[in-house]
Amino acid sequence: MLERAESNCVTIIPTFEDNFCYVVEYSPGNALLIDPAEPSKVWPVVSQMPLKITHIMATHHHWDHSGGNNEMVKLLKERGEEKVEVVGGRKDAVEGKTISVGDVDELELGKFKVSFLETPGHTNGHICYYFDSADETMVFTGDCLFVGGCGKFFEGSADEMFGSFMKLAVLPRSTLVYVGHEYTISNYSFATKAVQTDAVAARAQWAAEKRANGEFTVPSTIGDEIDSNVFMMAVLEKEGVNGGVWGGFLTKCGCAAGSSFLPAELLGKVREAKDKNLLK
């Protein structure tokens, strides 16, 4: 199943069981690929598109995001593409990488200015790709930010993921969010047990309806994630005390009455609760 996303320059290609690859047509006839990790599914689509592929951008080094880079470059060059750059984080061992990027780097592609946000936590060298233009903004978040969730802290810490989420939280609320996996139902099953807010409940219902209709839950928006993603809510929590929206959650996690946490600590508690299935 393929869907044209809300941005008319992005095409979604589902890969593996729940991954996403994205084709971004940044100018007429020119495009790039984000996380084309399963060439057997990506190539049959891309090869039929009247587009020159100039870049492959990998969010991080995990095989289900960058493991298809070399094969995709090979296929593209056999088709006639003279040069395909493979972009990855400067701290990341991305397969086939030819360009290393980080926070200080930018790239002009068609109407877009592309910024490379270093977003460690899931992996040390994780990159989110922020596309900014006069008429739209969008960010490709890999396994940092999911719709209603976030990636596991495989190589990083709660403090690092806190910093990464803060970089995303300051983007315009209307920014379209394209994530690395279709985990939304699982994320909101957890979220509705963690906190009880109208926004979380509404998003859980929205996600259930989208999936029941065979639709993807991407793109989201930064505004929606700020309002209803419990991991982002933890990051932006100013108090973090055992009361209010977090009271029941902290009690279920065994925290003493009146416990107080910094936002990064609260983020760590939320991640631990999901990892260990504490909210049964």
UniProtKB/TrEMBL annotation:
UniProt domain Metallo-beta-lactamase: residue ranges: 18-181
Cofactor: Zn(2+)
GO function terms (MF aspect): hydroxyacylglutathione hydrolase activity; metal ion binding
CDD domains assigned: hydroxyacylglutathione_hydrolase_MBL-fold (cd07723)
Record keywords, A-Z: Hydrolase, Metal-binding, Zinc
InterPro entries according to UniProt: Clx_II_MBL, HAGH_C, Hydroxyacylglutathione_Hdrlase, Metallo-B-lactamas, RibonucZ/Hydroxyglut_hydro
UniProt keyword Nucleus present: no
A single BP term in Gene Ontology: methylglyoxal catabolic process to D-lactate via S-lactoyl-glutathione
Similarity comment: Belongs to the metallo-beta-lactamase superfamily. Glyoxalase II family.
Entry protein name: Metallo-beta-lactamase domain-containing protein
Organism, scientific name: Triparma laevis f. longispina
Phylogenetic classification of the source organism: Eukaryota, Sar, Stramenopiles, Ochrophyta, Bolidophyceae
